[in-house]
Design a protein that fits this description.
disordered C terminus; 2 helices; elongated; alpha+beta; three-stranded antiparallel β-sheet; 154 residues
């Protein structure tokens, strides 16, 4: 009996991997696509502050990132509302989205797609390019080259 107890203790002590807590952040980077126009937008959202994308209002409740020593994973709890004529605050999504597998918990919407890219702690004003800094031609080339290689010009 003692041997089993010692063996169980050793397996528990040395056999388990170290678990570290997720890092809660105040900002996250989202990517959105307007399926009608094909326009891709990268947006910075702050937790508990509404962000508007087209007719959608996105509110991030939480954003969790894994520590740097672990596999990269970001998860955000999002509430997404759509402004329509019938219902000015129709909820279209409420749940967790994961950066490593966006299809796991995707927002089902006929016009817009939104997914989480990363959760960040620092101010992203220098890292994310503001839409007004991109010319219309550069924006179209970026969409064609990065998101749809079939449309890229040779």
């Amino acid at each position: 009996m003692r041997l089993k107890l010692i063996l169980f203790f050793c397996i528990g002590l040395f056999g388990c991997t170290a678990w570290s807590a997720d890092v809660s952040t105040k900002q996250l980077v989202l990517r959105g696509v307007d399926k009608i126009t094909g326009r891709v937008s990268t947006m910075t959202a702050t937790v508990h502050h509404p962000l508007t994308f087209g007719t959608l209002t996105i509110i991030a409740e939480r954003c969790l990132a894994k520590p740097q020593e672990e596999m990269p994973e970001n998860a955000a709890f999002l509430k997404v509302y759509e402004k329509t004529k019938e219902d000015p605050k129709k909820q279209v999504f409420n749940g967790w989205m994961f950066s490593s597998n966006p299809a796991l918990s995707a927002m089902e919407h006929p016009i817009y797609d939104i997914w989480v890219l990363s959760c960040v702690n620092q101010d992203l004003k220098e890292d994310v390019v503001a839409p007004q800094k991109i010319s219309r031609e550069d924006d179209l080339n970026m969409v064609a080259d990065d998101d749809n290689p079939a449309l890229a010009e040779d």
